[in-house]
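Q: Okay, next protein. This is Sugar phosphate transporter domain-containing protein from Mycena rosella. I've checked the sequence twice, so it should be correct. Can you predict the 3D structure?
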Amino acid sequence: MGAPGLQVAAVVAFYMCSALVMVFVNKAVLISAPDLPLVFLLLQLLIAVVLLRFSAFVSRGAIEIPKLDLDIARKLFPVVSVNIIGLVFNTLCLRGVDASFFQIARGLVLPLTIIVSSVHTHSAPSWNVILASVVVTGGFFLGVAPSSKVPLTAAPSLLSLAYGVLSSLFIAFHAVLIKSSLPYCNNSTIQLAWWTNAGSAVLLVPVVLICGEHSTLRAMLADPHWDGTVFLWGTCVTGFFGFLLCIAGLLSIRVTSPITHMFSSAARSVLQTVIGVTYFGDLITSNRATSIIVILGGTMLYTWIKAVETQTAPPRQATDIESKGGDKVEDEEIVWQATEEKE
């Protein structure tokens, strides 16, 4: 394997490891402290902001952090607010479902993104894209359908499923808003990531206070019977790997093709299921296993269709400065991949 092959393999492995760590450590923390989902999310965001600042300092200009500008903050308010709402629903969904079922609960990300994007651009997707969307939607409903093989204690609640659908919907809104927000950040996803993380943390603070999680945390810290080791280390690990995942998603899009990127996502999903069953004792029925396969199949079909459509379409210049130098990918594909992996 030559240098380019090793580079692609290293980036794919980096991306997969970061994503897997995020899901399972997040789940472990939420199991140990189920009453602190918003505090947990807030600390992750703050860690990401600090690490972005540190990276800008040590990179000597390679990574540029924008200066605070109230006018830009006002323009970015829609994308920041949609981001934090989606992250909250995402966290609440993961708290209420098995780690392996999490990918089923959020299985409508792709169909909803296609719908929202079509409404926003006033354009109709191709019939092939609609077919891929229908396949993914069918996989979602297959996975969430009631089954006699799933005990009531192991069945996800309707509220958790609602959180998953809402999370998927706000991811779709976020994908559309990213495209219109990048010009305010010099077309830099790194600068947008800083604004998004910092702004989301600011917006989340009053929610934490209103929900009383700061009081809950204070009470838990004062309780001699509560072992906060998992919460403390889990927060540090997920905050760090959340930062890495942002970089990993960008590297994966730059160095690999969309199809390679999506196949690495599929491999991650399979590993996620295996690890969930092995270490968390997740229940996998034939319906759930088939659902995961159908969702992955529909997603890869969509990726292949978009790759073919991009090759036959007139060449377009990439607008994201971090994406320059990699494979030429349609803007919509870059935005959807980066958003999907960030969540």
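A: Here is a summary of the prediction. The first helix runs from residue 3 to 32. The chain is about 75% helix and 0% strand.
Q: Noted. On to the next one.
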